[in-house]
Amino acid sequence: MAGLRVALAVHPASGHGAAGRVAPVVAERLRAVSSRLTVVEADTVERSRALMVRARDEGLDALVVLGGDGSAHQAVQFCAEHGVPLGVVPAGTGNDLVRALGMPADPVAAVEAVVAALRVGARRRIDLGRVAGGAWFASVLCAGFDSAVNERVNRMRWPHGRRRYDLAIVAELAALRPSRLVVDTDGGVLELAATMVAVGNTAYYGGGIPVCPEADPTDGLFDLTVVGEVSRVDLVRMLPTIRSGAHVGHPAVRVLRARRVSLGGDNEWVAYADGERLGPLPVVVECVPGALELVG
Q1: Domain map (residue ranges) of the chain
Q2: Three-state SS for 281?
Q3: Does residue 287 have a pLDDT over 90?
Q4: Are 107 and 230 a contacting pair, CB within 8 Å?
Q5: In b/e form, how buried is each residue of 36-64, taking b as 16+ CB within 10 angstroms?
Q6: What residue stretches are annotated with the DAGKc domain (predicted)?
Q7: N or C: which terminus of the chain has fewer CB atoms within 10 Å of its end residue's CB?
């Protein structure tokens, strides 16, 4: 299979520079199965997509992305739109898509798995979520408390790393106000005062939090986790249980399943998907079965 045409998309800054450091090793491994390896290295979404399109126009059998969940999100857009199989080599801080799909967390082990799959032509398909008229997402779309934390983190310049999230959580807890949420699905309409909502194609977000613990990216349905009105104290008590998935047993939590979801209501919530900002509600999303072909 050494004649395969493969593009390696590298986002060097991912994982605080981890992607850039491991990129030569990953490229070397891929050359074992590809006589035409195109390395796409870019620090902006626009340049990355332009280089991917150029590689596709020259003929492409697979795209391998090296980076974090943000990098994978951009690769998903390209692969879903152009029907190119995707391989993922994790080198970010969260790596939630890789975790959900049962792929190796170590980048060298992950590229070895991708190379082995390319050798034998192993492929599988997973579902994707699609925002009406817009982006695809592979993992989780969220709005409410958790997306407010993301909004605050993106405005902060200090500190760096996990402490920035910790401070943002404290600040958002102080500002916590449940808002009116309308969840309209193919199974009915739910209106309530809510704290947050997560629409999961896969289980994880936020670096390993199983917010939708039973989500299966091959069943053609989203799993929804809706957290109703809770006090600051209740939310603080609930946060540790989210790490184990036990939060779904809390009386304020409702779990739904649906193929199509509309989120709206009288609120100022912003939606994030795969950790990337989409914009304010309302938002309509649909689960598209088998929309992405994976290598491995």
Answers
A1: 5-124, 136-290
A2: coil
A3: yes
A4: no
A5: bbbbbbbeeeeebbebbeebbeeebbbbb
A6: 1-135
A7: N
| Element housing 288 (H / E) | strand 283-295
Q: What is the CATH number of domain 136-290?
A: 2.60.200.40
6 residue type, one letter: V
Distance CA 250, CA 281 (A): 25
| The token pair that represents 229 in the structure block | 């009105």
Res. 164: pLDDT tops 80: no
Work out the average pLDDT over 221-241: 93
Entry field: residues in the chain = 296
Q: Using N-to-C axis directions, what is the helix angle for 162-174 and 232-242, rounded to 10°?
A: 150
Pick the closest to residue 206 from 275, 144, 270 (CA basis): 275
Environment class of residue 8 by beta-carbon count within 10 Å: exposed (0-12), middle (13-18) or buried (19+)? buried
State the Cα–Cα distance between residues 67 and 23, nearest whole angstrom: 9
Q: Which pTM was predicted?
A: 0.92
Task: Indicate the angle between helix axes 107-120 and 14-30, nearest 10 degrees.
Answer: 40
Q: What architecture is the 5-124 domain classified under in CATH? A: 3-Layer(aba) Sandwich (3.40)
